[in-house]
Amino acid sequence: xxxxxxxxxxxxxxxxxxxxxxxxxxxxxxxxxxxxxxxxxxxxxxxxxxxxxxxxxxxxxxxxxxxxxxxxxxxxxxxxxxxxxxxxxxxxxxxxxxxxxxxxxxxxxxxxxxxxxxxxxxxxxxxxxxxxxxxxxxxxxxxxxxxxxxxxxxxxxxxxxxxxxxxxxxxxxxxxxxxxxxxxxxxxxxxxxxxxxxxxxxxxxxxxxxxxxxxxxxxxxxxxxxxxxxxxxxxx
Length: 236
Fold this sequence. Notes:
By secondary structure, this protein is mainly beta. The chain has helices at residues 4-25, 83-88, 147-150, and strands at 28-32, 35-39, 62-65, 69-73, 111-117, 120-126, 132-138, 158-166, 169-179, 183-196, 199-212, 218-229. It has three helices and twelve strands. The relative contact order is 0.21. Residues 1-25 form the signal peptide.
């Protein structure tokens, strides 16, 4: 009969091996709005990046309703019902986290405007009730978040973001590494933006991986959603 201590040690080793296999398998290729996205193993620490050609950048300039219309995916699959909230998190655009009064309140009157800048797009969000937020969506800028954002993050958190253009679409990749007392994890988002029918079509895939630090456990959650944001001129 196997003693309890060796049996427990063997179980832990088997669990750790299963965990390692699961973590290594947490990669693959998916399609986000017809764009092929290769997801490296999250433990590699690399940011998901797509090919980029600035000549393929879409014309995103316009004013859009902040409240979107779901086209595909689970309604709870992503924070994509409100365009301002999506740009604030998970994309964490520089500037949008700046404190404003009054606080943002989503409503049919809320709008988000994109205007082309030298290094990307300027973003202006108005909720029609006094709240105003201005940010920047930079191209090809992988960084650990804007300076004004860092004070809002918990110790152990790290954010990287990169954006580029391909197939007439803008892609934005964000990697958020986080750490707590008993677990550590990675949240990765790849968003594809383009014009459609005068509005803004946004498709996003999320991959969330978590590993236990004290006990060997691993979870993965994946989702994809698509929302269309109508031009504001059509919806006063």
